[in-house]
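Reopening this ticket.

The earlier resolution said the output was attached, but the attachment link was broken on my side. Pasting everything inline this time so it's all in one place.
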Amino acid sequence: MSVKLLSWQRFSHWMGQGPVRLVDQPSASATRNICRGQLLTRSIVMTLLPPEEWILRAAGIGQVVLALASLAIPRELNWVAQTKLLRPLTRQVFWTYAGYIWFSNMSSGLLSTFLPGSLVDGSPLAVAVSGFIAIWWAARLAIQFTCFDRSDVPAGTRFAVAEAALVTLFVALTITYSWTALSGLTVLWSVSE
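Inline output:
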């Protein structure tokens, strides 16, 4: 029976641990042991991932939660009635933009949640994607304070707490992805020297 060792980078996103052993033609007992090992590995994966991957995974979960929670915004701010006042083309463009923003938030959240190792591997693509996400959240943070008309914000503790949570999340995401992109750049620069 021959055993192959597979590299950390190739399978870390799936298994969440170092080199994995695969058996060419495993016996029934070996198959059971491999399956048990994989289940055990997945249950303790949190303790085995490098810290930067955990930070990105947490950021990803935050973005997914944000995207799911943002599905309530149209109802809370009465978008259907508000957008009926717009011309049809303007209304359609508005809903299209809202959909694209939602999809972008969800996509970067899922990417960070399920493939954090791919964002910290130091590749040019990892740096570009992390940099894009950092700029995305930095822009969103700037828009929060420079473009929104604060006079029409709904009153109440619920909205104040929600805004504080959003701003905190935007700051955390901006810092996380900026750090990830800059760390990747240092890896690229050290490789090119």
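Reporter confirms the inline version is readable. The two ends are 43 Å apart (CA to CA). Residues 3-46 form one domain.
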